[in-house]
Amino acid sequence: MSQPIEVIPDVAGIIRTIRKHRVILDSDLAKLYGVPTFRFNEAVKRNRQRFPDDFLFQLTKEEAEVLTSQIAMSKTGSGGRRTLPWAFTEHGALQASNILNSPRALAMSVYIIRAFIRLREELAANSTLEKRLAVIDKTLITHDTALRDIYQRIRPLLLPPPDPPRKKIGFCTPGDCSLLCPAENQHQSSNYKKYH
Description:
The chain is α+β, with helices and mostly antiparallel strands.
């Protein structure tokens, strides 16, 4: 007789960041481990000494309200939770599987730890990528400034040259010749005097 095939859940999708910690909520862990949330929380309370503060913390009322508006969590008083949710860090999730001591809890703990590791690797890769992008951005700004300076220096060379000064065509009167063509002024005035 064959065992039923079990679908492996997407554990990375239920990992949230609360108080700068990556955590899984008690209701999500209970679903993964295949137990009701209230039973899961009872087991945690019985073994509270196994969960230091860096393994487990209870959300405040404000944090729970934010989560209620973000995810499909039922509101208190309408048949849903009556207590504030607990948040389990990576180590707390592993410890929770130890207190449940069921085959499913032990199997799911492996997936949970792998999801936390994969998330940590992705964050490290994103951090490295972010640093590289910052260096590239700084380099581009430097290059942009240098290119702008080069363009300002080349721009006058790209403009067409001004028209060369043209020699005036026509006759000059003695008053105009001194203003228009000073080099020829003496020659023309001598000619002018000569013929007049």
